[in-house]
């Protein structure tokens, strides 16, 4: 884990992440991060992926995946989850 990152609770990080999501130009109604976990030095975000009735990805799925990837890049250099 990087030593220059700041410890943050998962709840506080999700609040901050969801603010970023709502203000992002690629925001879609219903896009929300509901979970975050630490995988090595990377913060991994999860939430609704907009799957269809058969459980297959929809057009919105790519946008959500890209948003969660954006959050990982944005926050992994700043924070690590508190233990």
Automatic annotation (TrEMBL):
This is YciN family protein. It comes from Rouxiella silvae.
